[in-house]
Write a structure and sequence with these properties.
ligase; membrane; disordered C terminus
Length: about 425
């Protein structure tokens, strides 16, 4: 796969500084803005316009559009990038772009919502192209500068959560026991999505720790940051995120070999355990949403999966009604009560929304990009944190809406674009 293109137009900003500013924007600025705009104690109590703005991810889409415009001002040529793709990827991309919107226009029962999500995916793809363009001349050693912005973002979000959970408005005092705390995380529609975000950041920090020599104050600061991200994930009791973080350990070994320091196995786990233990006194009001398992989880395999297996089976049967082009974006909302806005599984989601044609095209593009990203990381170890973040979100996508919500699609496509750009895509077909 050869995406080698002429070097992008020179800019006043040192290319080595771009990862820092991009990480700060994606990891801190956008989540904090979303947290300020969408801080509430009841999702359903918001005006529908505000609900839609959060559900569709307007803040993150606006950030992506800003990056696209920035990249255009610096010579972004989308057509050149598309022409540099291998033949199979050009065919898949063409099949996707010419079909993924058809069912949203012709079949969807809520075409305005479906078309909005189609537009969002168009923005995501342009964002990936823009990020690829901006990252092509960034030195690989500068990629570690991505992550301080994400850590600062976690600290900022934690402070916002503490304030939001502790200093209740006057009208809510005395009624806090009736508050649905799982939807009260500022900027996130539920606590599990916040756990998915923190789990993805933890995976990236795990990648940095994997590459760290494990000595000196810098290593302990890194371990403390990783423990903080892990503690937040543990606090949210997001099982999918914790499972995905565990699954990426063999991936890291396969891609980058053994960790560089014994401290990864001896010291880092102590930090993680300490971080998890510190969260135990802070479970909000003994809310059952902040538990790993409930009694009905153990009644059956489907119960352990919180009903997902039966839900997926029902949606796959409904997908047979429009097998080729799908039923439109967000079709699960109207096809099967209780009106989940996504199927909680990327395979079911793609087949239901885009059908076999669009789903297969999108799946092949993502799989191909992921394959080449891992090959790039095997040659350039600085890419390991990016790959692990993408892998965690992809694994979680088998259980939740990582390919539905804008902030996670931004991280997935942005991470893949970064991996392909960091080595200028010089990967054999």
């Amino acid at each position: 796969m050869d995406l080698s293109l002429p070097a992008p137009t020179a800019t006043r900003l040192d290319p080595a500084a771009r990862p820092f500013w991009l990480g700060l924007a994606m990891g801190t600025v956008l989540p904090v803005i979303a947290g300020i705009l969408f801080a509430t104690y009841d999702l359903a109590a918001r005006p529908i316009v505000v609900q839609n703005a959060q559900l569709w991810g307007y803040v993150y889409l606006a950030g992506e559009i800003a990056l696209i415009l920035h990249a255009q001002a610096r010579g972004l040529d989308v057509w050149s990038i598309a022409r540099a793709l291998p033949r199979w990827a050009q065919v898949a991309l063409t099949a996707f772009l010419t079909t993924f919107w058809i069912s949203s226009v012709t079949v969807s029962r809520l075409p305005s919502c479906s078309i909005m999500l189609c537009l969002a995916w168009t923005i995501h793809l342009l964002f990936a192209a823009g990020l690829f363009h901006l990252m092509r001349d960034v030195p690989q050693v500068a990629l570690a500068r991505f992550w301080p912005g994400f850590v600062v973002g976690l600290v900022s979000l934690t402070l916002m959560i503490v304030i939001h959970f502790t200093f209740l408005p006057a009208w809510l005092v005395g009624h806090e026991r009736s508050v649905d705390w799982k939807v009260a995380i500022p900027g996130f529609i539920n606590v599990r999505l916040f756990g998915s975000w923190t789990g993805a950041v933890f995976a990236a920090l795990l990648g940095l720790a994997w590459l760290s020599p494990g000595r000196g104050p810098a290593a302990h600061r890194l371990y403390a940051a990783a423990a903080f991200a892990f503690a937040l994930t543990f606090w949210t009791t997001t099982r999918a995120a914790l499972l995905a973080d565990l699954c990426v350990l063999p991936i890291a070994w396969f891609v980058a070999g053994a960790p560089r320091a014994r401290a990864f196995w001896s010291i880092l786990p102590l930090y993680l355990v300490a971080g998890a233990l510190l969260t135990l006194p802070f479970q909000p009001y003994n809310d059952p949403s902040y538990t790993f398992f409930e009694a009905n989880n153990f009644t059956s395999v489907d119960g352990f999966a919180t009903g997902r297996l039966s839900y997926w089976s029902a949606l796959l049967r409904l997908a047979l009604d429009h097998p080729l082009l799908g039923s439109g974006m967000m079709a699960s909302w109207w096809l099967l009560p209780p009106f989940y806005i996504h199927p909680h599984n990327v395979v079911v989601e793609f087949l239901l929304n885009w059908g076999i044609v669009g789903g297969a095209a999108a799946g092949s593009l993502l799989a191909g990009a992921a394959w080449h990203a891992h090959q790039a990381a095997a040659r350039a170890s600085a890419l390991l944190p990016v790959v692990l973040m993408v892998d965690v979100l992809a694994i979680e996508g088998l259980f939740d809406g990582m390919f539905h919500f804008a902030q996670f699609v931004m991280l997935i496509l942005g991470g893949l674009a970064t991996c392909l750009a960091a080595t200028r895509g010089v990967v054999a077909d």
